[in-house]
Amino acid sequence: MKKRVKAAILGFGGIGHCHASQYAGLKNVELVALCDINPEQLNKASETINLGDSGAIDLNAVRKYLSYEEMVKAEPDLEMIDICLPTDLHCEYSCRAMKDGFHVICEKPMALNSKDCRKMIRVSEKTGKKLMIAQVLRFCKGFEAIREAYNTRKYGKLLRLSMTRVGGLPNRLWFRDVKRSGGAMMDLHLHDLDFAISLLGTPDALISFGVKAASGGIDDSVSNYIYENGPVVTSEGSWCRKKFHAVAAAVFENATLEFEDGALTLYRVDQPVETIDLGEDKPYGAEVDYLAECILKDVPPLRAMPESTMQTVRLIEAEIRSAEAGGKRIRLKK
Ligand SMILES: NC(=O)c1ccc[n+]([C@@H]2O[C@H](COP(=O)([O-])OP(=O)(O)OC[C@H]3O[C@@H](n4cnc5c(N)ncnc54)[C@H](O)[C@@H]3O)[C@@H](O)[C@H]2O)c1
């Protein structure tokens, strides 16, 4: 049987469970261990996050640990650590794991600020260990369909991209502290900015408006990314709404693709709305499998290079500056 990379999940909370439930059947990676400082988490076969239920996990098929140190000591064959910790721990544990000889996939946002992202990249370069941030929209079939239509121009030029991602304040307490989560702009809205720049590159300028709410950071915002001679791009994000809702609408010259809460539709003037079958979509599995494939082939993770996910954090910092200055237009370096 082909070699598979042995991986462990560090942080078995909401998103740790979502990752774990999608490892089964992956070609390039196998999950061998789970680690969480909270023993209750290690006994939960499923979890609920804003997207719904994580899916079930076979807890008997993996070894479980209560600390990072204990796990790495007991698992000599471990090659990759899948970091699903609260955001304020991303930089510390990514650097530590790479220095200890592991490749790292780390949840988004890469870190709370671009200085820490830079540090993570330096450690990856120095240790030769691969680092990839799990910017999941880059691996999500609905967003990939928009990317494909953009690249092939099958519906003509992209004229407008509108993205919305809103919901309530997450119930885990650390999210409610801007110093730990970055607030909704850094935590939630960042997904859509990341997709926009992975598709279109860094905008020429941006303008954001936002309000500070329960986290102490900007928890409700709307941004305009200005691409001179390019599409009109806007994005809205919030932790101040009653229910999770995400939609991306890509308006091309001859059709509109709309990906709404997991369903993709194609709208064309005077034609019936078409629902596009995306098949099974397991983006959390797809991203870990992709990094494992890059490890096995020893190639860089081009779909989500750490420099590009650092740029996402840098642009969120610019959006926060713009919003705090009441919607100041900020010119951006390419
Ligand atoms: N990609 C997505 O769609 C998505 C969705 C939700 C969360 N996230 C991101 O994932 C990260 C985790 O979010 P979450 O919702 O799973 O949070 P969570 O609080 O549910 O889970 C974090 C887990 O880490 C554990 N933990 C804390 N310190 C630890 C340590 N030192 N060692 C081992 N375990 C430790 C906690 O006990 C907890 O179970 C955040 O950065 C968040 O932004 C991403």
Short description:
With 334 residues, the protein is of the alpha/beta class. It has helices spanning 14-21, 39-42, 68-74, 90-99, 114-127, 141-152, 178-181, 183-200, 283-297, 306-324; strands spanning 5-10, 29-35, 48-49, 52-53, 63-65, 80-83, 103-107, 131-134, 158-166, 205-212, 218-226, 232-238, 245-252, 256-260, 263-267, 274-276, 330-331.
Proportion of residues in extended strands: 25-35%
Count of DSSP H/I helices? 10
Overall number of strands: 17
- The share of residues in helices is 25-40%
- The quaternary organization reads as single chain
Task: Describe the sheet with the most strands.
Answer: 9 strands, mixed
Describe this structure in words.
The chain has 334 residues and is α/β, with parallel strands linked by helices. 33% of the residues lie in helices and 27% in strands. The strands form three sheets. A nine-stranded mixed beta sheet has the order 16-15-14-13-9-12-11-10-17. A six-stranded parallel beta sheet has the order 5-2-1-6-7-8, with helices on both faces. It has a two-stranded antiparallel ribbon with strand order 3-4. The longest helix has 19 residues, at 306-324. It is globular. Bound molecules: nicotinamide-adenine-dinucleotide.
Record the SSE blueprint.
Elements: E1 5-10, H1 14-21, E2 29-35, H2 39-42, E3 48-49, E4 52-53, E5 63-65, H3 68-74, E6 80-83, H4 90-99, E7 103-107, H5 114-127, E8 131-134, H6 141-152, E9 158-166, H7 178-181, H8 183-200, E10 205-212, E11 218-226, E12 232-238, E13 245-252, E14 256-260, E15 263-267, E16 274-276, H9 283-297, H10 306-324, E17 330-331
Parallel strand pairs: 1-2, 1-6, 2-5, 6-7, 7-8, 9-12
Antiparallel strand pairs: 3-4, 9-13, 10-11, 10-17, 11-12, 13-14, 14-15, 15-16
Helix pairs in contact: 4-5, 5-10, 8-10
The chain binds nicotinamide-adenine-dinucleotide.
